[in-house]
Amino acid sequence: MEDSPSHIVLLNCDVCSSFPLPDMLEAHKKYGGMGTLLVNKVSAESANQFGELVADPETNELLHYTEKPETFVSDLINCGVYIFTPNIFNAIEDVLQQKKDRANLRRISSFEALHSATKALPADYVRLDQDILSPLAGKKELYTYQTLDFWEQIKTPGMSLRCSGLYLSQFRHASPHLLASGDGKRSATIIGDVYIHPSAKVHPTAKIGPNVSISANARIGAGARLIHCIILDDVEIMENAVVIHSIVGWKSTIGKWSRVQGEGDHNAKLGITILGEAVDVEDEVVVVNSIVLPNKTLNVSVQEEIIL
């Protein structure tokens, strides 16, 4: 609360979105409530994976909220992006005091305490969804702001690639100067949305894209082909190597004529290939749907493996 902020923005760490915070803040001020939730419509089949809510179609007031219900409630879900006034801390303190009061009123035997200790949450544990959002719903304290733009939850490593593609697509409309271009004559052939850091060196005969992000000081050799991948700092991809549906970690090397790829299933555990920091894939090695931890050297081909 240093500098007495008028509003507080809270973001879940596993969310990919265009984050329309200025528009959301303007709506929040008009509502005049304690908090505003960013919401989105999803299919009825997938709604129960998230916090479902019911909002007044006229005022956008949050009327009902339930976290991951067993039965369908609404196709409107909580996106994990919030704007609160500082009064949210008063609400947290009230809930905390109520929990402590209930704990003091209820006396249990030492045997019960032993068996319930691992199941029950500690008395000073406050959950935003069940303890704050649900009780305040319908009390003109919480409101919703629906995003019509992209929104995803990053629950698997593969979703990082999908989300990177969404941000590159956003650059196409909002910051096109950040995206690379090239026709294969003086610079590499670029297909679709591609970001290349100014310090990276890409051979003119390489073919890059779509959905590729190349970070600082990376070196992409002659004839290399990159599709749907994230290349982190100081990576070297040698001549005629292929990288598809993969994340290549810092300071890694992919040898000549090698192939690093995944199937591209963003929801699967091994739907993409991930190379940790300083992984050396030697010449003519194929790595498919695998996760390789840092500081490893691969001199044989692997498929659907986690290399520790």
Give an overview in words:
With 308 residues, the chain is α/β, with parallel strands linked by helices. It has 5 helices and 26 strands. It has helices spanning 21-31, 87-105, 110-116, 128-136, 157-174; strands at 8-11, 15-17, 35-41, 51-55, 62-67, 76-84, 142-146, 151-153, 189-190, 194-196, 201-202, 207-208, 212-214, 219-220, 225-231, 236-237, 242-248, 253-254, 259-261, 273-275, 280-281, 286-288, 291-292, 297-298, 302-303, 306-307. Residues 190-307 form the Mannose-1-phosphate guanyltransferase C-terminal domain. Belongs to the transferase hexapeptide repeat family. InterPro entries: GMPPB_C (IPR056729), Mannose-1P_guanyltransferase (IPR050486), NTP_transferase_dom (IPR005835).
In short:
Residues 190-307 form the Mannose-1-phosphate guanyltransferase C-terminal domain. This protein has 308 residues and is of the alpha/beta class.
List keywords for this structure.
twelve-stranded parallel beta sheet, 21% helix, single chain, 26 strands, 5 helices, 308 residues, alpha/beta, elongated
Q: How far is the first residue's CA from the last residue's CA?
A: 44 Å
Query: Helical region count?
Result: 5
**Total strand count, please?**
26
Overall radius of gyration? 25 Å
- Please describe the biggest sheet, giving its number of strands, its sense, and whether it closes into a barrel: 12 strands, parallel
Structural class of the secondary elements?
alpha/beta
The share of residues in helices is 10-25%
Low-confidence stretches: none
What is the approximate shape?
elongated
Which percent range describes the beta-strand content?
Answer: 25-35%
**Overall pLDDT:** 91
